[in-house]
Design brief:
Distance between the termini: 38 Å
Structural class: alpha+beta
CATH topology: SH3 type barrels
CATH architecture: Roll
Order of helices and strands: EEEEHEEEH
Number of strands: 7
Helix content: 10-25%
CATH class: Mainly Beta
Length: 115
């Protein structure tokens, strides 16, 4: 299997069901260590919806997603998607700062790291 790095932004080949008219972009969240084990990728959809404020929606810059406008990572919509649903080559890569914010949202979503 092709190693897809965590933080890569991939384009969907065909609709996956998150519903926009724009080409669908997804942020890869799964560890590279699982690339040879799983036939799927754990991803979160990226949308260019108007600026939203919610702890499970993380802003991401246009350079990071390979788009003319910024987007938002919808952490509450995590999904395991078959690899063959994505283009092979990433169109962007999230910065360490963005991944840190996404990780915080995942911890909130799953209720981990609570005292």
């Amino acid at each position: 299997m092709t190693a897809t790095p965590r933080g890569a932004v991939l384009m969907a080949i065909r609709a996956i069901g998150f519903g926009t008219s724009e080409p669908a972009r997804f942020l890869v969240l799964q560890s590279e260590d699982l690339n040879d084990v799983l036939p799927t990728l754990v991803v979160a959809p990226i949308d260019s919806a108007p600026t939203l404020t919610h702890p499970l929606i993380v802003p991401i810059g246009p350079r990071e997603i390979g788009a003319p406008k910024p987007g938002h990572v919808f952490v509450s919509m995590l999904a395991a998607v078959p690899r063959d649903r994505f283009e092979l080559r990433p169109v962007g890569r999230a910065t360490a700062t963005t991944l840190s914010r996404v990780d915080a949202a995942i911890r909130l979503l799953l209720g981990v790291d609570r005292a």
